[in-house]
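$ ./design --mode recover --in tokens.txt
reading tokens...
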């Protein structure tokens, strides 16, 4: 029903426009006799009268082309002004929104770019004995205790801490709890060690932050890689 009504309105408006155009056209289109101008006669020296510099079309064209030549500074400034009046306000608004959102939810935007929610790191429950070893940086003993309990995930973490400790003691890297693994890689001066060192850091990230469940078979491979690298130091 609505489509038929719209179709009727379109036809009606079309007829109205046609009739309006027809009414606008006068019946007698011939000009009145009193407006018919008589034929004019031109003088014989007409060409000589219009032969001056003021009537030379070429000069006018050249002047017109000169005026049309764009002025680069003014063109550039006009584009800059157009940017600040059109695009810049929206860009500034986006920056302000970004700053406000960042201040409200913090610096971690990984949830926005990932389809999965950020995984919560498992709580590490340590005994008083393990805490004592951790405070004294006795990672070798912690590795043994973790293996005895079948906690291969924490055993991998202790190997990672042992690796950083020994490399720092030998002056290969500078240990800092706020440093990232990427910073440790570039901190390593011996370039021949960077590739195997990067692989060990990758294993730790995959096991610890990826919450990969490590069994005894997996850990034997991990332990072999860490021990082999530590012997090279």
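writing sequence...
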């Amino acid at each position: 029903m609505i489509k038929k009504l719209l179709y009727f309105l379109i036809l009606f408006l079309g007829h109205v426009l046609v009739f309006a155009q027809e009414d606008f056209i006068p019946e007698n289109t011939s000009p009145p006799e009193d407006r018919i101008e008589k034929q004019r006669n031109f003088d014989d020296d007409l060409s000589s009268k219009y032969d001056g510099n003021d009537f030379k079309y070429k000069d006018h064209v050249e002047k017109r082309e000169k005026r049309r030549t764009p002025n680069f500074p003014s063109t550039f400034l006009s584009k800059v002004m157009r940017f600040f009046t059109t695009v810049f306000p929206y860009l500034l608004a986006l920056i302000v929104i970004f700053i406000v959102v960042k201040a409200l939810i913090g610096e971690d935007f990984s949830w926005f770019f990932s389809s999965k929610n950020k995984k919560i790191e498992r709580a590490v429950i340590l005994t008083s004995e393990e805490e004592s070893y951790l405070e004294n940086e006795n990672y070798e003993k912690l590795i043994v205790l973790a293996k005895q309990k079948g906690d291969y995930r924490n055993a991998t973490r202790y190997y990672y801490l042992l690796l950083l400790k020994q490399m720092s003691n030998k002056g290969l890297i500078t240990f800092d709890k706020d440093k990232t693994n990427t910073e440790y890689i570039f901190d390593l001066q011996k370039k021949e060690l960077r590739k195997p060192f990067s692989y060990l850091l990758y294993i730790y990230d995959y096991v610890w932050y990826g919450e990969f469940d490590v069994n005894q078979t997996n850990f034997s491979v991990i332990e072999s890689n860490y021990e082999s690298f530590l012997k090279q130091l």
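exit 0
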